[in-house]
Design brief:
The longest helix is centred in the first third of the chain and has 14 residues, at 9-22. The chain has a four-stranded antiparallel sheet, with helices on one face. The two termini are 12 Å apart. The chain has 131 residues and is of the alpha+beta class. The chain is 30% helix and 33% strand.
C-alpha cells in the first residue's frame, strides 16, 4: 500500500479518482488539485511520527445551480468514511479525511483558488492523515 508521503502525482491521481468515485455530483475531469503540502508531526508520547498532507483542490460544479449539490456531496464523503475507504482501495493509506475549509462561488477569483473563473468549489484544504 502507498503511504501518504510523499504526496506525489500518483497520489494526486488517486485522490482525483477517489473523489470522482465517491461523489455522485462530479467526474474526475471536474477535479483540479492545485497544491499538496506534506506535513509530519512528532509527539512526545509516540515513537513514530504521524504524517499528513494538506491538499488544495478545486471542484468544478458545472453550473451555479449545482454548487449546493456538490458542496453537500463533498461534505458527505469527507464525513461518512467513503472517501477514506476509496483512497485505501486506490492505494493511499489514509486513516482520516478532514475538510478544513471550503469556499463556493459562481466565479472563483484567482486569489481564492489560483485557477481562474469557473463554477465550482475551491476546497481550501483537505487534510489526509496517515496511521
Amino acid at each position: 500500500m502507498i503511504e501518504i508521503q510523499p504526496f506525489d502525482n500518483t497520489k494526486i491521481a488517486a485522490l482525483t479518482q477517489s473523489l470522482a468515485a465517491t461523489m455522485t455530483s462530479i467526474t474526475a475531469s471536474d477535479v483540479n488539485t492545485l497544491s499538496a503540502v506534506q506535513t509530519v508531526s512528532n509527539t512526545s508520547r509516540r515513537l513514530l511520527a504521524s504524517s499528513s498532507a494538506d491538499i488544495t483542490t478545486q471542484l468544478d460544479a458545472g453550473s451555479t445551480s449545482a454548487l449546493t449539490t456538490v458542496a453537500t456531496d463533498l461534505n458527505r464523503v469527507a464525513n461518512d468514511g467513503s472517501l477514506v475507504s476509496k483512497l485505501s482501495s486506490n492505494g493511499v493509506r489514509a486513516s482520516s479525511v478532514k475538510l478544513l475549509s471550503a469556499a463556493a462561488a459562481e466565479k472563483m477569483s484567482t486569489s481564492s483558488c489560483n485557477n481562474g473563473a469557473i463554477n465550482g468549489i475551491c476546497i481550501g484544504t483537505i487534510l489526509l492523515c496517515c496511521c
